[in-house]
Every structure is written in C-alpha cells, then in structure tokens.
Amino acid sequence: MEQAIVVAVVTIAGTLVGAVLACVPGLHVYNIMALVVLASHWLASTGTPSQAEILVPLLISLTVAWAMVNTIPSTLLAAPDESALFTVLPGQKFLMMGRGYEGTMITGAGGLVGAILLVVGAGCFAPKLLPTLTAVFRPHTHWVLWTVICFMLMSEWPKGGRLGYAGWKMFFDGWKHTGPGLVTFLLAGLLGFVLLYRSPIAAESAFQNLMPAFVGLFTIPWLLLNLVSGIQIPHQRFTIESSPDRFVILQGAFAGGFGGAFAAFFPVITGGVGGFLAGHATALRDDRVFLASQGASKFIYYAGGLLFFFVPGVHLTRGGAAWMIKGLHVPHTYADFYMALACVALAAALSFLLLGPLTRATIALMQRVSYRRISLIALLFAVGLVFYVTGFAGLYILIVATGIGLLPVLYGSRRMNCLSVILLPMACNMSGVGSTIAGWLGLL
Questions:
Q1: Residues 6 or more apart in contact with residue 225 via CB below 8 angstroms
Q2: Which domain holds residue 80?
C-alpha cells in the first residue's frame, strides 16, 4: 500500500510538471527525460541508491503528459502565413479562424479516447497477443518499413500541371512542390547517415545525438517563419463552435489509434507517420475528425510504445522513453506491467483535465505578448538548449538541419519528408545495406 501511494504521488507530480513543460515550444519530452536520467546517474555516482519506484513512474507520467498537452504549442504557436492558410494542417486553420482553443480541445479529446483504447486494449490483450505478433513480424520489419517509405513518396504525386501550361511549363508546375519534397527526403536521409556513422557529437552527449537534427528540421523553421512573416493572430474564442458529436471524435480516435498502434509496434515509424497512414486508410476528410485522429495517434504512439516495454516476456523497446527507462530498470513481472498501466491511466486523465486551463493561459499570454516575441524567446531557448546539451557540434548540425527543414516550409511540400533522417538509415541497416551505403558516402 505504501509503495502504491508513492507511485500515485510521483505520477501526479510528474504529470503536473510534464504538462507545464509541454507548453514550451521546441522542448521535447525526451530532452527532459534525458536530464532526469543524467541526474539519477550523478546521484548514483555519489553513493545514493537508485530509486526505480520513483524514477519509473516519473518518466512515464512525463511522457504521457507531454503526449496529451503538447498539442498546445503545435496548434497555437505554429501559425501559417495568410497565403498558405488553405494548405496547412487543420490545427493551424482553426487558429487563424480564432478557434485555436476548439482545435486544441478536439485534439485532446481524441487523445483521451486513445488513452482509453490503449489502457483497455493493452490491459486485456497485450500480454497474450504481443509475444505472438512480435515473433511473426520481426523477420519482416525491414520490408514493412520500406513499404511505408514508398507510400510516403508515392503520396507526393506531382501536383498542379493543369493550369493551361504546355510542355516544360506544365512539367515544372506539376513538380514545383513534389520536387523539393523528394530533395528534402534525400538530404534528411544523408544527414541521418552522417549522424549514425560519423556523428560530430561528443561521446558524453551521444544519448542526444539526434536532438540538434530534430530541432533544426521541425522547430526552428516555423519559428523563423513566425519572425519574418509578421503574422497577426486573430482574437481567440473560448467556445466550441462546431460542437462535434461523439461519432466524430470516435471516428477520428479509432483511425488515429490504429495508426498510433502501428507506429508504436514497428521501430522507427513515428506517430505522425502512423496518423498519416491511418488517415489515408480510413479516408478522413473532416477537419475535426483529422484533429481527433492526430490526438489519438500521438498519444498511443508515445504512451503505447513505452507501455509495450513493460509487457512481461516481451520488453519491446520502442521510442526514446523506453530506451532511457531500460538503463534504469528492466521490468520482469506483471506487477510492473500493471503499475505502468495505472500510471498511464492516471496521468492521461489528469493531463486532459489540465489541457483546458493551460490552453486558456497560453492564449491569454499570446494576447499580452506579441507572437513574434514569443517566437523569438522560443527560438533562443531551443538554440540554447541544443548548445547546452551538445555544444558547438550540435549547433553545426542544427544549422544544416534547419536549411533542410526550411525546404518544405518555403516550397509547400510535406514536412514529414524530414523524418527520413531516421527512416532511411534504419531501413537500409535493417536490410543489411547500411554499412555499404555508408562506405560509398565515405563515412567508414
């Protein structure tokens, strides 16, 4: 009973901290967890015994809170230019229509349904089904990953080409968005090979090897766009205008749950890719359904990938959170599994309750402080964090990654192509050709 109380208190505290930190743009939960792990190793070196019953629920609650609440900066602090209003994600559309609060809450509702699906599904079926699924799919992981990559690239089919042009003009019009998308995929993949085989990051910071690349590919470009575009955020209303019924939320959550579970089970595939695949598989068109699906997909990807690690007899290590916990504690019993399940359920419920107040507080801050100033502070914070963790080598990687990440922003292609930084090297390695390609590139 005493241990259960400790786990509950730590989970609540971790959820509160994680929910607040999730509102900071550019700050990823894995960076927070890495600092916690470093602090625990430092304490262990001073003779302080490791407190797994405290660290494990703390890291779980941080992950769950971030997965639920991070929709706030991704929706409210990633506004598009007015000319791109109808080519961006639905979350940004809601923001520019003064309905950012509504978009955030619909996404959170999808995440909550995803949490229910995850807790019920994992609690009832994971210990029985996961060992069999792992044994069946493990030999086929490489071609599944290549299939996902091929679908991503094929879905970037040339757009345009129907504006009355002829000959080469029609060709260039059709490929003006798709071409930069394919170039982005190739360049990000080359960067991934460099980081995997000859990273300039010092050995003591190797646990954050990909951090500068991800910040440069995904965070810095839209912050720079916010600074130079002079965007004026319209007044935000704290009402749910479209009143989505339960069917809308459930439809999106079930579709996103499928994609999130797919991404959590297979290595390297992220929640965004899983949600993308689920959207195509279920033909999602309604913006509200899309938002709910993304909330469920992201939640199940992060929380599910971590929860699978605790399934007895499997220890499926997916995502940075599971790898960091693995260095502190390896679960062996059903007690560990159900403790993690309870932590996920408690943290998910509490973080959803915090989502509304934190969204209101963020919008209130945006109304008092200019959007450019918030973006500048976030930019300085992101760059400073990269320098603190990885030094000057990390800044060099950050600059290169930012150049690649700006291509989708400037040319209107999919930012998902930047995920090639991990997709392409890992797919090649799983197929047994990674070292050969690295040799061709002069990295060996």
A1: 81, 409
A2: 2-440
